[in-house]
Amino acid sequence: MTAPTTPPTPGGPAPPAARSAGPAPVTPLGRLLAMFAVTAVGWSLPNTASATLAQALVAEQSPDRKVALFAVVSTVGAVSAMVCTIVGGAWSDRTRSRFGRRTPWIVGGALVAVPGLLVAAITPSLPVLVAGYALFQGGMNASIAGLNAVTPDRVPRDRLGVASAVAGLGYLIGLVAGTAVAAAFVEAPAAGLLAVPWVLLATALAFAAAAPDESSRDAVAPPTRWRALLPPLDRDFLLAFAGRFLTLLALLLFNTYALYIGTDHLGLDTGEAGAVIALGTLFLGAAALVTTVAGGIVSDRIGRRKPLVAGASLVMALGVTPLLVAPGVPALLVFSTLAGVGYGTYLSVDAALMVEVLPSDGDAGKDLGFLTLANTAPVVLAPGLAGGIVTLLGYGALFTALMACAIGGALCILMIRKVS
Question: Which InterPro entries does this UniProt record tie to the protein (predicted)?
Answer without folding.
Answer: MFS, MFS_dom, MFS_trans_sf, Sugar_transporter_CS
